[in-house]
Amino acid sequence: MKTPTTAEGRTASDASTGYSNSASADLGAARTVLSLMRSIEDIGRDRARGGYSRPVYGSAELELRSWFLEAAAQRDLDVETDRNGIMWAWWYAPGKQRRDAVVTGSHLDSVPGGGAYDGPLGVASSLAAIDVLRDRGFVPSRPIVVAVFPEEEGSRFGVACLGSRLLTGAISPERALALRDGEGVTFAQALTTQGGRGDRIGADRDMLARIGIFLELHVEQGRGLIDLGAPVGVASSILGHGRWRLSAHGQGNHAGTTLMAGRQDAMVAAARTVVAVREIALEHSGARATVGRLQPIPGGTNVIASRVDFWLDVRHAEDAVTAVIVEKIHAEARRLAAEEGCTMELVEESVSGTVHFDATLGLELSVATGGSPMLPTGAGHDAGVLASEVPTAMLFVRNPTGISHSPEELCEDDDARLGTVALADALAHHAG
Ligand code: GLV
Ligand code: MN
Ligand code: MN
User: Fold this and answer.
1) Alpha-carbon distance 209 to 349, whole Å?
2) Separation between Cα atoms, residue 136 and residue 42, nearest integer Å
């Protein structure tokens, strides 16, 4: 394990820990990342799927939002919730100006049955990084802000990074308000229930103008850092990705009275398409294509489905290749549906092009965090949306299982503390 970078002149060594005194003090102060994570470990547990289910504005995510407000208040941070539901906790620089902010943070919502760290680690480490900086006696010359973005996963309303997309104008308020969750509740209704106002959401140039830089810490969601043998890394890029809804339409009918010949079974059309998705993805080096969610209508054991909705996630470094893959899938899905006497439609739900983070900033972050390696990721993040508006960078913390969006996602305590100190170093570098 490498020693985190420390401020100049603090190099005396501490034989008991193997770290310099200052680094040892930083790691001590960074312990709050562990207590913060432990304090939320029972919120939103999913007893059926395992892991956590914390859909945006559901009871678990709301409890986490309250937890965040309390943790921010304990640190004397001044929290504002903007009109898009993003929470911003300000640590003012002397002079109390809300501009040129060094913003960090992540999200608190999860995928269904997700891990404990995807999102919350970024929020907890941001709060703990402030503890580290205060323990150092650091006084920021630019404000440091911890942000919490709603609906990063898009697991409730279907569009990932909905909060940051609204903030930047990457999605129109009209489209966002009309999004529906699995129960038919619109985003507009969910927002109103939380005291938000549909007529106030949307691009917020004033808020964006106050962000000088955005740094998101996230648990790594693959094996990159395991293979590099490093606890902390810096993101170089985010793979382009998108979501499409496919709907197979057939003839609903009785499972017992309908002969096998001549059926128009929407489930068969969908199932054959799922297999084709994998085959088409394999034709394109580096492509990933997934169907992880499928909803038969009406959904009875003894009923031939009249319709099946299923969702496609496609990712590739070249956006043009992603488009080709989706078109091939659509064409093959239509052909397979026709063979079954069905029809197939495809609707785009969201697309995000490949993001290459600012190389200079990335390099600077790598140096500021003691020479952390740079690595790409296949996972989407609010940082990817914000990158088109403000200088943005990401830190990754090793995940020893290499598994994410699953209860098996993991982060070792020591790595969480090292990541927190690396984030503190990065914040100090920019806000000092
Ligand atoms: C979010 O984690 C995504 O990559 O879809
Ligand atoms: Mn995430
Ligand atoms: Mn995720």
Assistant:
1) 28
2) 32
Three-state DSSP at 303 gives: strand
DSSP string across 212-253: EEEEEEEE--SSHHHHHT-SEEEEEEE-EEEEEEEEEE---E
Distance 87 CA to ligand 2 centre (A): 16
Q: Kindly report the number of other CB atoms within 10 A of residue 227's CB atom.
A: 11
The helix (H) or strand (E) run that includes residue 144 is strand 144-149
Mutate which of 381, 385, 394, 396 for ligand 1? The one with the most ligand atoms within 8 Å of its CB, which is 381
Q: Which pLDDT tens digit goes with each residue over 190-245?
A: 999 999 999 999 999 999 999 999 999 999 999 999 999 999 999 999 999 999 99
End-to-end CA distance of the chain: 26
Is 382's C-beta closer than 6 angstroms to any atom of ligand 1?
Answer: no
Q: Do residues 312 and 326 lie in contact, with contact meaning Cβ atoms separated by under 8 Å?
A: yes
Ligand 1 in reach of 379 Cβ (< 6 A) = yes
| CB under 5 Å of ion ligand 2: residues | 118-119
| Secondary structure class of 343 (helix, strand, coil) | strand
Our answer on whether the CB atom of 108 is closer than 6 Å to any ligand 1 atom is no
pLDDT in tens, 80-131: 999 999 999 999 988 878 899 999 999 999 999 999 999 999 999 999 999 9
Instruction: Give which of 95, 229, 86, 203 is closest to 145, Cα–Cα.
Output: 86
